[in-house]
Amino acid sequence: MTQEDKAVDDIEQEVTETAATEQASDAGVDEVTVEDISEVDLVKQLEDAENRAAEAKDQYIRAEAEMANLRRRVEKDIENAHKFGQEKLSKELLAVADNLERALQSSESETADITAIKEGVELTLKGLIDLFGKFNIVAVDPVGEPFDPQLHQAMSMVENPDVEPNTVIAVMQKGYQLNGRLIRPAMVMVSKGGAPAASIDEQA
């Protein structure tokens, strides 16, 4: 082999090695780029999944709170239905009690022949009062008590220096409460003796 042929071979080998080195370098760059892209995608997917999980948790907490509020409202409605479901019946029975009391008052001056009737009426009234007790119906009979517009209805005001102003001195008609709720105010007469009484709404 001549010196020239050897020189040509060396040049071809050098060119081949250079090309191989560049090809390997290019392949390495592409490989790093693909890995970088994959990591970015995974991070983004993870962030999206975390955001969806946080949103789902928030919706779950809100739904639980709404269900708890609904449960409390339903329980309150049921409780009120149990307590006040008989309010209409109670109001109807009040008229019966009033009539029995009036019958007793009118029979007080009658002869002894009426005694049996009076006793019967008394027993009827007692039974009705016992029935009221079973249904938690309580009479409002405030003689001697301060006037309370939440419980009483003033029918008239009378000067009476023997008692404090705005004191109930007579009850014309008892009031009644059902489980603590006023279903009829007591109709009362109120004193206005001594110092000037505070204004009372007689139509309350």
Automatic annotation (TrEMBL):
Enumerate the GO terms in the molecular function aspect.
adenyl-nucleotide exchange factor activity; protein homodimerization activity; protein-folding chaperone binding; unfolded protein binding
Q: Name one GO cellular component term.
A: cytosol
Q: NCBIfam families given for it? A: PRK14139.1, PRK14140.1, PRK14150.1
Q: Which CDD domains match?
A: GrpE
**Name of the protein in question:** Protein GrpE
Lineage runs: Bacteria, Pseudomonadati, Pseudomonadota, Gammaproteobacteria, Oceanospirillales
Q: What is its main location?
A: cytoplasm
InterPro entries named among the record's database cross-references: GrpE, GrpE_CC, GrpE_head
What protein family does this chain belong to?
Answer: Belongs to the GrpE family.
Question: Might you name a Gene Ontology BP term for this protein?
Answer: protein folding
In terms of superkingdom, the source organism counts as Bacteria
Quaternary state and interactors: Homodimer.
According to the UniProt entry, the coiled-coil residues are 39-110
List the subcellular locations. Cytoplasm
Query: What are the record keywords, sorted?
Result: Chaperone, Coiled coil, Cytoplasm, Stress response
Pfam families (UniProt xref) = GrpE (PF01025)
Q: Which organism is it from?
A: Reinekea thalattae
